[in-house]
Give the backbone structure.
Amino acid sequence: MKQIVITAVVILCASLATWAQTPKIIAHRGAWKNTQVPQNSIASLQKAIEQGVWGTEFDVHLTKDDILVVNHDQDFYGLDIAMSTYQELLAKTHPNGEKIPTIEEYLKEGYKQKKTKMIFEIKTNKLGVERTVKATEMSYQAVKKLKGLDKTVFIAFSYPACLKLRELDKNVKIQYLNGDKTPEQLKQDHIYELDYNVKVFKKNPDYIPQAKKLGIKTNVWTVNKKEDMEYFIAQGVDFITTDQPELLKKVLSK
Ligand code: MG
């Protein structure tokens, strides 16, 4: 009897440990690759939410006339976002007929539900750091106004953007993307999460264990191959950002 109880406890602890290490799935630019909708469209956001992923990522730019819009590239079908007004951007549409989403439209759709978090990337503005910091302040205020701070994680390549967010709010979740700071450096600046490229983690295999020791959460982008998914699951990363949320779900369920 005693033996059975001990075995049961061991199995329970082992499964709890595995569960604790399971990374959360973040759909990169929404769920678009296997769903035939444009990335960063409202449709890609809805698809990610339908899949029940932990988070859905999207990219945000500031237009010439200070409107925040959602798109990955610096241009929207050939129109340069930083140099165009919002009205000018309406000349183009996504192949599914959607116009470029404003941040209010995108966030309102995302905040209709509570399960899937909004992973909000503030894009570096090509016109300079002042525009990037302005976009950061506006992004924070847009989320706050819609009462979305606890449903949102901000990510940015721009370190000034990360520092501005921390200055605005001591609790808001921020992940730094650029890969050029150690977990220790981030902690000193009160940035408690990092989101680095696959190559950065492979070049610095001590980053994940170091981050764990420091209480820094780790996210990795963009993990699309099964072997890489398995590698980062084994490393105990906290989040995996992928264009293939369907595949990652399958790998995790094994
Ligand atoms: Mg992005």
